[in-house]
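Researcher: I'm comparing several assemblies side by side, and this is the next one on my list. It has 1083 residues spread over two chains. Same procedure as the others: predict the full complex and return the structure.
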Amino acid sequence: MSDALHLTVNGERHAVRAAPSTPLLYVLRNDLCLNGPKFGCGLGECGACMVLVDGRAARSCVLPVSTLADHEITTLEGLGDGERLDPVQDAFIEEQGAQCGYCLNGMIMTVRGLLNADPAPTREAVVAALDHTLCRCGTHQEILAAACRAAGLTPSAAQGEPSAPKGEPSATQGETE
Amino acid sequence: MNPISDARTPDTDNDALRYGVVIRPPVYRLDARAFVCSQLLHVDREALAEEGVTVVADGNFVGVVATSHEAARRAAARLPLRWSTPDRDATAVGPAATDARLRRDYQWPGRLAWGAEPDWVIADFIDGGLRLAGPVASTERLRGELACLLESDPQRIHIDGDAEAGLGRQGSDDAAADAALLARAIGRPVAVRLDPDPYARDAEALARARRLRVSGTADGDDFRVDDDLGYVSVPPLALWLTGRLTENLLRDPDAAALQFTFVQESFLDEVAAALGEDPVALRLRHIKDPRGRQLLKSVADQAAWDHPVENDGGADLVRGRGVAYSHRPSESGDAGSGTRSAWIADVEVNTVTGGVRLSRLVAGQDAGADGPLRPLLDATPLRDTLERKLLGLPSSPPPADDWAAPADRKLPAWRPSSPPARRDAPGTPALSEGVDLSPAVAVVANALYDATGVRFRSPPFSPARVRAALEERARPGKRRWWWAGALAVTGLLATLWPFRPSIAPVARPAANLYSAETIERGRLVAEAGDCAVCHTAEGGTVNLGGRPFETPFGTLYSTNLTPDPDTGIGNWSYAAFERAMREGIGRDGRHLYPAFPYTDFAKISDTDMQALYAYLMAQPAVAAPAPQNELRFPFNIRSMMAGWNLLFHDPAPFKPDPSRSAQWNRGAYLFEGAGHCGACHTPRNLFGAEKGGDARLSGALVDGWEAPALTAASRSPAGWTEQSLFEYLRTGRSDAHGVAGGPMAPVVAGLAELPEDDVRAIAHYVATQMDAPLSDPAQSERAAAVVAASRAAPVGQEAGQRVFEGACAACHENGTATFTSAKQALALNTNLHSQRPDNVIQSILGGVHAEGVAGAGEMPAFVHSLSDRQIVDLVQYLRARFAPGETPWKEVGKTVADLRREHDQQ
């Protein structure tokens, strides 16, 4: 019953037929076959569905597609230029910041969003940005190290500073390498 | 093209015109000794350049210019600025003297008013010459001031204005100077709107421009000015802000005479009142000049001074009479020469609205040997001017049901022009040609005292000020309850004849019967009235009815509003439609229940009602029978409503209050009529009728949601202002409050269809109901303090905190600004400070889905993912953390369970 909506995703314009309240995530995965963003909780709690809207991190499972007509959407697929990966992706490979990989889209997109807003963040800012992006495997140390590398922070800054992501025992600090 | 839509940027045919909005310093005011003002430390001129916004800064004057008024307004709100805080000024008051002299302090404001209603001032600066158009007084004085501001030649400033110059200055002078500076900076014509922000703020800032302390002996002899602080003439604020003000602009002999006469004649009146002496007799005793005495006697005879005005005991109207006399020496300074004036005025004061009318004015003037003898002036034009400028009465208000946007009416067509030539004719001082206005202000002040017993020691005498002064003096009155009993008996009798005839069915009017304009107007009435909100079932077709309403009397269902002849209103004649809207009687003669707010719709004007009928009849017809109502006995007997109507329904049409502005009346018409705001925001009594008195608009529970109070009892932690009300109603969101959710979301979506000025009018009317100021510089400080207090997690709420961290914090904790983050600080949300948790629980269960409301954002529903226990913990945590000063809510578990049942049913 609804007219076509026009979405700009990874630089391309797409005409999409969907009810206005359909979450962006469903359109990305089901209509545009972009499976980088994952379905996790569906309530904006875990961050697996993260995309960039106008360069800022956004949880696509709670964004009605009708509100995004005038915005630039970037998914994980749109980060690199086809030849090379985004530096954030490189950093995650370098630090092997993954276990099962389901949360990885959220982690990478969140860090990209942070760096777009603040190219030289502190470690505290990196931790705060990743605070509500959840990993169930417990790979936080590697993920944080990758994020800090992407942010241009020295390995000591990544390891040595006091605060860790919430709920993570600090006893594991320094055991990762 | 639709002439009424909000996309009325007039630059379509007017490419050169730009729109300016000025940004005043956070602190500025004219104190009796100096102009106190924050200093501009930094402005980022390039910040908004990409959006085509030009920033103009000059001293402490800052303005932005953009291609539309909306764009300029938005830019002004976002422009990054840093200001210093001015030193606190210590204004010493003269030492209190102890001798037996009578002493009084009087004040004169720098602006009489900011303007009667929104209007435009347009400036164009070409080759050192300036052309101004708008409600500006064309005076030598303003020309001189603008020339000083622009470093131009007064002869090259052309003012095409229709405002009167006498009595005092208005906000349009400030707007004119603002527009002139902006136009010169960008080299194009610039339109500036006379909006309450900043021009009402300006009037406030300049309210204490001059202060006079005078004294005399107890019988009024030996009158003298003991202390005179401040400024006789207050040039436009742009001159003060840019620092280009020169000393010679502060002098104004006409204004000085007017102000001095006000002080002297008010003081003499106070002496007369203290002595119990007749004010005319006292003046005759004091006036030494024989010609002056003769003039005053003749004017007093003409005005029948010996026959005092009568108060006929009418409850709300008091009358009074005052006198004032002045003698302005001529330039030669000879004792016998100069202009003498004697004025006598009768006033009528509406003690409820504060509106003052000049019912009669007798004015005499004698220029003595220097000029013609004009014993009695033609007082009618004088009276109109006084009412407009001094009493704040609009000259001829547009009707309150006028849907044409003021901008359409007001924005003068701007024709690009050649540089202004030198003027040939001097400006036209409209009324003061040869008339000395000196006694004008004093005569009204004295008459007001005679009528009300309240002494106004500074002008103007606007309805708001008069009302405030009367309220301060008023004693608490007794409530009268006997009428309720009397009416109940009458209502009982009326139920004996409760049967109303049916109105014959007609064929649906032909599709081409009504013009497109009428149907469009009807659409706006329908949007303002939110017909579709109630007459559309959840997820159903628009206006098809079937939405359930749970009332204490049972469940009601809305009906099919489409023009289907069998199940809708297709065979309703206009007469039947109007009777239903105004009296609550269906076409077939059945009484309707007041869940349908005909009690408010009765206030809709005839033309709007006809347009609404035209619009509804032009919609597609769909057949859909309404579900049967499920009302308990005896409420299912419809004829009972006859008695109810007699008791509780006032079918009188909307009557504008002449003492209020057109904006106020427009807002009142929309709010009380089609908008039927009170239907939700006013609590209802045992009979389901809206309560009156203090309970009016004091908030109520409707459909499982709390409609908060729209009075001074609002629980908003940061406090409302007219500006924030407008933002909330226009965009669905206000920075200092929250977003529109629940049943308010579709209301805001409907308002989005209305012209901007209509929404402003509603905000203005609501602000007067709430006693909210136009804007409040302290609001953001208060809001920041409330937000700061909510940073710490409350003790003993760990269970709720865990739920919050997991389910809410990703968006609601403002660590990193992501696109999805909820921009609204929860600590400022009125719902968390309310006495009831209902709206908080509703939002958690059902989320926020405000379709068509840009500012409201989107929140998922948690009804299927959080248990009752988790929601109770969360709600208590939210209360403890974000409203730490309030007591914890009671019976949250029961409310959660009740509300969840409603969500499960959907």
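Model: For your comparison table: DSSP finds 30 helices and 25 strands in chain B.
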